[in-house]
Amino acid sequence: MATRALILAGILATGSVMAADEKVENPVTQDGVVKITWQNPDKYSDIESTAERQSRFEQRAFDSMTENLAKLAGKVLTHGEQMQMTVTNVDLAGDVRPTFGASASDIRVLKDIYPPKITFSYQITKGQQVIMSGQEELRDLNYLGGIQPRRQESFMYENQMLKHWFNKTITPRMEGTPPK
């Protein structure tokens, strides 16, 4: 009888873990004036987790990029303006490699041949009026070049690439100066 109870408890626990890891089809993240729709993340080139549950890893990546763009947008956009993005592909910096038993999880190897990439469309609106819009395919081929920070942050290469794009494309137009 006790064995049956343990088996039933195991089945119920497994079911609740599976339910907790269910993915949202097109997750949306929002922080301040930035709202991002992550379209079909299951089809992204590489957003593979190495050591944590895939859904949690994806949410952390999406939240990190949204938060960093919100910090930038908050300095440039005026009252009533909002930035909306639809991300259609992400390829994180590096490539995931199996460890073949050396550890419990895979590792992400960073090499020049695996640059970060992101594809998206964006709009900046004020009320119902579209102030600017566009489509981008960003890729940072020199992500390992230059001075590397001492403290490694999650998704720092992707965030740096988005920051560079924002400062080169959005900031000048919103501040009324021509892009460089």
What is the fold's blueprint, element by element?
Layout lengths: L1 H19 L7 E4 L2 E5 L15 H23 L4 E11 L3 E3 L9 E3 L7 E10 L2 E11 L16 H19 L6
Helix pairs in contact: 2-3
Protein name: DUF3016 domain-containing protein
Pfam families: DUF3016
Keywords: Signal
Question: What's the quick description here?
Answer:
The protein has a five-stranded mixed beta sheet with strand order 1-2-3-6-7. A two-stranded antiparallel sheet has the order 4-5. The chain contains three helices and seven strands; from the N terminus they run H-E-E-H-E-E-E-E-E-H. It has one domain.
How would you describe this structure to a colleague?
About 9% of the residues have low confidence. The protein has three helices and seven strands; from the N terminus they run αββαβββββα. It has one domain.
